[in-house]
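TA notes, week 10

Several of you asked for a full example with nothing omitted. So below is the full record: structure tokens for the whole chain, then the designed sequence directly under it. When grading your own attempts, check the secondary structure regions first.
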């Protein structure tokens, strides 16, 4: 694939820059790494740009220069409330043009005519036509929302999207002026109850949320992404590699909590109970979680419940949900029905286009299955709403904090339905770093910045709206992805990629707008290599950052004093990409990578570095009187959380795995089948499964929760 490792020409570098492709980056050892000509050509190809020869490069450069002049109005204009914006309008030179705005119906609608600014721009010949540019002013007093700009004249008629976003997303009152909140972080699938079907579910989420608030005073519960996976086995275990980020994984539905389940005939009720009996024993199994078994059993039960008639009011609510979600829901349900019939990764090529007559014929034939998958989303939405309601009723000030994954499965619903908005020929990953010295390929196709803007950012908006429907907060995994992503050309090693830049003003602004409308807090996971200006920008826009104790070090290499932490962050001791704190203290993060062959530095060197890191941490804790000379593991874990509570961070999170003494990692980045990623059930230090039923009477959890509550 990337066969040409020569240095890129100046023309190729200019073309790359025009499309936001960055030719160099700083490696984790502090060295400047430069992308080869082959890498740049391959990344440009994934952006739809032919740079295969010097002649093609020159042609592409001319095309990109003329591209804005071919558009009457920009496809998308994003501005902040209170700031006016000049918008270029292109028509045949000398032709008059009328430009106006139609305002978002959600803020009352209406129309605003725009006036032309006195700005002269030399006309340009494009495709044999002399094109003039008129500049119109979008005023700064527009309401927040999704408006449209229209242009009409003898040689032009066009429409674009104008998005007015908050200048800053304000924190809720309880987090202002020194206020703070703390909460738990959990992988929902791993936290099961006696009534789960082998996988933690939305009924468990409601119970955890209520109990966490009522019993321990927690303010939020951060959970893994609940995005939908494939509708048939084998299910992808990673919640960070979903089929779609817009819709919910129905594996999290609790069948018995569906109202119609209470009215089943005796024979149908028996079918549901028999399905449950096959997986209920898995709740006490400390081995890898079997999603395939859980979903197979649940789907059997859900088919039975779906077939039961709904009352007229219930049917009306269902119909209203389908109408509100629009064509996107129906398209996802159709993909799910096709994936059921053919397999998610083996849908026939003739069905690759959702708008084709062949797909329309399949939709008619599979109408009942399409309705079933539509219904699943409604049921999941109702149970998500119940979980957020329970968390707030239990006393949580924020409630459920949802997580947004970076991308989607290359053979999933979004790739099938979103067309060119997702790139072909490249995947997202990360260059080599200290913890993943060979780099990472997450196998996810990235957004194409140009196509996303051309689509008015509507796929991005719709995704955010669904995740935020029943959320008190949202965590954006790898938030630097709103600024740049590491694109790896197909067939290349993870280190042979290049960064591609995105319009962060648009992506962050739209995120702030949708969170504002939902009343949600936004947290960006800004770990790793992040330029300081990015953190400053996010803070300016009201997006909180992330601080992990193990990663926060001063210039001397020692743990950063707590008073030096940023205040506008979610501060934690650990993260799901590391072993729980008990395991990390024991060097499990080194042992796993050594066992799996993921280290590039000598094992003794890495082990010595880990031991030195632990010693520095213990020294920092002792210096503040948080531990004695010979502390137990539990005392060290609690001391580390006291250390984090001494920071000015407005949010503090504690992993449920830390709270019960779990040692096993949920995920080992850089692996696929080598480690049981995302399959580890919640267990204590002895390896015994901890159920929701016993979670908040667990002595270790109660002790750690008291530490958090006392430091609030």
């Amino acid at each position: 694939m990337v066969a040409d490792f020569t240095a890129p020409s100046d023309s190729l570098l200019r073309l790359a820059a025009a499309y936001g492709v960055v030719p160099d980056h700083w490696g984790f050892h502090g060295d400047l790494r430069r992308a080869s000509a082959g890498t740049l050509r391959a990344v440009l190809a994934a952006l739809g740009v032919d740079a295969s020869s010097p002649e093609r490069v020159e042609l592409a450069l001319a095309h990109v220069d003329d591209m804005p002049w071919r558009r009457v109005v920009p496809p998308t204009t994003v501005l902040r409330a209170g700031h006016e914006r000049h918008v270029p309008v292109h028509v045949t030179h000398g032709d008059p043009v009328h430009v106006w705005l139609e305002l978002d119906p959600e803020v009352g609608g209406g129309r605003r005519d725009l006036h032309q600014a006195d700005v002269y721009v030399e006309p340009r010949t494009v495709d044999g036509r002399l094109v003039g540019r008129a500049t119109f002013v979008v005023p700064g007093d527009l309401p927040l929302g999704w408006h449209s700009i229209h242009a009409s004249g003898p040689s032009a008629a066009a429409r674009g999207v104008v998005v007015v976003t908050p200048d800053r997303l304000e924190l809720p009152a309880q987090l202002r002026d020194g206020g703070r909140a703390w909460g738990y972080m959990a992988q929902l699938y791993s936290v099961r109850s006696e009534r789960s079907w082998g996988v933690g579910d939305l009924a468990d989420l409601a119970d955890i949320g209520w109990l966490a608030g009522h019993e321990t005073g927690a303010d939020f519960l951060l959970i893994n992404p609940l995005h939908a996976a494939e509708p048939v086995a084998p299910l992808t275990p990673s919640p960070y590699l979903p089929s779609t980020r817009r819709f919910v994984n129905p594996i999290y539905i609790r069948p018995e909590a569906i109202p119609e389940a209470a009215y089943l005939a005796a024979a149908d009720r028996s079918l549901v109970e028999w399905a449950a009996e096959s997986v209920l024993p898995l709740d006490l199994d400390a081995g890898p979680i079997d999603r395939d078994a859980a979903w197979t059993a649940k789907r059997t039960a859900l088919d039975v419940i779906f077939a039961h008639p709904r009352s007229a009011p219930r049917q009306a609510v269902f119909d209203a949900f389908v109408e509100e979600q629009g064509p996107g829901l129906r398209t996802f349900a159709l993909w799910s029905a096709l994936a059921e019939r053919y397999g998610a990764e083996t849908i026939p090529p003739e069905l690759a286009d959702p708008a084709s007559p062949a797909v329309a014929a399949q939709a008619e034939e599979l109408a009942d299955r399409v309705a079933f998958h539509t219904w699943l989303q409604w049921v999941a939405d109702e149970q998500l709403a119940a979980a957020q309601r329970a968390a707030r009723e239990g006393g949580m000030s924020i409630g459920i904090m949802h997580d947004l994954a970076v991308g989607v499965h290359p053979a999933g619903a979004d790739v099938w339905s979103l067309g060119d908005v997702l790139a072909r020929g490249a995947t997202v990953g990360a260059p080599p770093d200290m913890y993943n010295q060979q780099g990472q390929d997450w196998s996810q196709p990235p957004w194409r910045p140009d196509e996303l803007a051309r689509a008015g950012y509507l796929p991005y908006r719709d995704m955010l709206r669904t995740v935020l429907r029943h959320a008190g907060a949202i965590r954006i995994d790898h938030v630097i992805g709103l600024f740049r992503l590491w694109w790896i050309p197909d067939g290349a090693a993870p280190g042979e990629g290049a960064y591609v830049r995105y319009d962060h003003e648009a992506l962050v602004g739209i995120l702030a707008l949708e969170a504002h409308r939902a009343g949600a807090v936004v947290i960006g996971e800004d770990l790793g290599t992040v330029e300081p200006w990015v953190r400053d920008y996010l803070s300016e826009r009201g997006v909180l950052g992330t601080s992990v104790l193990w990663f926060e070090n001063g210039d001397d290499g020692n743990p950063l004093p707590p008073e030096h932490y940023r205040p506008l962050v979610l501060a934690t001791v650990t993260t799901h990409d590391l072993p729980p704190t008990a395991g990390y203290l024991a060097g499990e993060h080194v042992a796993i990578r050594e066992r799996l062959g993921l280290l590039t530095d000598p094992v003794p060197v890495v082990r010595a570095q880990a031991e030195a890191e632990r010693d520095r941490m213990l020294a920092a804790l002792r210096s503040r009187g948080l531990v004695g000379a010979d502390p137990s593991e539990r005392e060290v874990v609690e001391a580390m959380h006291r250390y984090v509570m001494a920071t000015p961070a407005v949010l503090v999170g504690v992993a449920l795995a830390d709270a019960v003494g779990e040692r096993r990692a949920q995920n080992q980045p850089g692996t696929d089948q080598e480690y049981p990623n995302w399959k580890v059930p919640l267990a204590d230090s002895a390896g015994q499964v901890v159920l929701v039923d016993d979670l908040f009477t667990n002595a270790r959890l109660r002790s750690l929760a008291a530490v958090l509550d006392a430091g609030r």
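The first helix runs from residue 10 to 18. Use that as a sanity check on your answer.
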